[in-house]
Automatic annotation (TrEMBL):
Domain CHAD: 219-478
Domain (CYTH): residue spans on this chain: 2-203
CDD domains: CYTH-like_Pase_CHAD
The keyword Aminoacyl-tRNA synthetase is annotated on this UniProt entry: no
Annotated GO MF terms: inorganic triphosphate phosphatase activity; metal ion binding
Protein name, per record: CYTH domain-containing protein
Pfam families in the cross-refs: CHAD, CYTH
Parts forming coiled coils: 316-346
Length: 505
């Protein structure tokens, strides 16, 4: 068994020229090109896929190699998967070439063998460079260009893979940084096998999904929770980046923004242990990216207001005029083309690479003293309770139940409230599901109420552009909308304060 460690990037066909220019700056140990044909196998019910196992037979020249990749770890384009290879003589699979222990329980090897069938194929030209890095590590750079085939369906392959053949994982990131310094590379978390399954199954695009809770366990240490939280954010981020490229949508951009915010809040939550200097450059780059995407929230509000020809404004005589004005404002914000350019820019790719490297190499550890190291290896539950107690105290102070809050009061606490909800994402899975939902849902509703208030801002900015009765009508409409939202929020806030904190048991 080997453990394959590689970084995968999606590129354009023209990127081969970039490779030919940049790779010679390093020590080239080998260079060749070959034609590869691969057939992937599974059962009719995708038994292997359900167990996160990929099986293929690869042919090059007259050599056949049967490969099985079992469940592994993917962090922002870095793939780490146990891999079993065996020489073969044909394109007919032979499961006995690999250890019986790698196959999922529930079916015998004979049953599984009798059910296997070809599902899809990948045929591509691979240009290979074996690069010697200054630290002695060896990295294989592969430029693959070809297609995935499933029946009559086809999908283009054009990607770069950097695989660590020997040495330190850090060498992968060093070389990747060199290659992406002019842009044109986008980190990929989809393997060729995953793309083949999609093609075979008629996949039509990924849907946006909400940022779920981090899958932490009671036995996890504080450091394990820290790592899981950052990996959780990276996974969510890369999923929605790919989904946006497949079918641009504001929902996907919003989820990317949530991922960014969650990363920054995770760094803040663990900031009492991890010194700020350990992540100073990383936080600076994350802040830059948040600023690049700061327009997303405003665009989201404008899209909601103009949806279905401005249905939200239907009771206003000036509906058509307002919708026209709002669409003009929306058109001045970033376009899909500009977003795609950002996603392939050197600085954007560098942010993800640097964060991935920091997580995988535990880049904070050299900055920890003995006391901090002990805390990192300490009990997660007590740490989580302390952090949740702190955010709860902040919320009680920000939304005091004894006074009536105005729209301005709520809006001023918007960012603070969302950060506190993000804190809960790190730890909530440690506690009873029913209790945590009863506590978190009203706070999430309160955050949504603030969003509803903020959505009125683009409309309120148009009041002065109207005159007479039209202006008065719009002003009255805004006041009614605001009053209605505030009334609901005040009821929700009372529920928030009455809910028992789930971590107190």
């Amino acid at each position: 068994m080997e453990t394959e460690i590689e970084l995968k990037f999606f590129v354009s066909p023209q990127f081969s020229e970039v490779l030919k220019e940049k790779i010679p700056h390093n020590k080239i140990l080998q260079h060749n090109s070959r034609e590869l044909g691969n057939i992937y196998f599974d059962t009719p019910d995708n038994w292997l896929r359900e167990h996160d196992i990929g099986m293929r037979i690869r042919r090059f020249d007259d050599v056949y190699v049967q490969t099985v990749k079992t469940s592994g770890r993917v962090v922002a384009g870095l793939h780490q998967r146990p891999e079993y290879n065996a020489e073969h003589t044909s394109n007919d699979p032979d499961l006995h070439l690999h250890p019986e222990t790698i196959w999922p329980e529930g079916r015998t090897v004979e049953e599984l063998a009798s059910q296997l069938q070809p599902l899809f194929a990948t045929n591509f030209t691979r240009e290979l460079w074996l690069v010697g890095m200054p630290d002695g590590s060896q990295v294989e750079v592969a430029f693959d260009q070809g297609e995935v085939l499933a029946g009559e369906k086809r999908s283009a392959i054009c990607e770069v893979e950097l695989e660590l053949k020997s040495g330190q994982t850090d060498a992968l990131f060093t070389l990747a940084r060199q290659l992406c310094e002019d842009g044109g590379m986008r980190l990929g978390n989809l393997s060729k096998a995953a793309r083949g399954y999609r093609l075979a199954q008629g996949f039509t695009g990924s849907k946006a999904k909400h940022l779920g809770l981090v899958d932490v366990a009671l036995q996890d240490s504080v450091e394990e929770c820290f790592i899981k939280s950052l990996e959780h954010a990276l996974s969510h981020w890369l999923y929605h980046e790919q989904a946006y490229v497949e079918a641009p949508s504001m929902d996907c951009l919003n989820e990317i923004c949530y991922s960014l915010s969650f990363v920054r809040q995770t760094l803040a939550v663990f900031g009492g242990i991890v010194p700020r200097r350990a992540s100073a450059i990383l936080r600076q780059e994350l802040k830059w990216l948040e600023q690049e995407l700061i327009w997303v929230q405003a665009a989201d509000y404008l899209d909601d207001l103009t949806e279905d020809k401005g249905h939200a404004l239907r009771k206003l005589d000036t509906q058509k005029t307002l919708v026209k004005q709002l669409k003009r404002v929306r058109a001045e914000l970033s376009t899909e083309e500009e977003v795609l350019q950002l996603l392939e820019s050197a600085r954007y790719t560098g942010v993800i690479l640097d964060l991935s490297r920091w997580v995988l190499t535990k880049g904070w550890q050299p900055f920890l003293d003995a006391k901090a190291s002990k805390k990192m290896s300490g009990n997660l539950v007590s740490f989580a309770q302390d952090q949740l107690d702190r955010t709860w105290a902040e919320m009680v102070s920000a939304f005091p139940i004894e006074q009536t809050l105005t729209s301005k009061d709520y809006v001023e606490e918007h960012y603070h409230l969302k950060r506190c909800l993000f804190s809960g994402i790190c730890f909530a899975a440690l506690f009873d599901q029913e209790s945590r939902q009863a506590f978190r849902l009203p706070w999430a509703d309160l955050a949504q109420g603030i969003d509803d208030l903020l959505m009125l801002d683009p409309v309120s900015q148009l009041v002065d552009q109207l005159q007479g009765e039209e202006q008065d009508q719009l002003q009255r409409w805004l006041e009614r909308q605001q009053a209605s939202i505030l009334y609901a929020m005040e009821q929700t806030r009372a529920m928030c304060m009455e809910a028992r904190p789930y971590w107190k048991g």
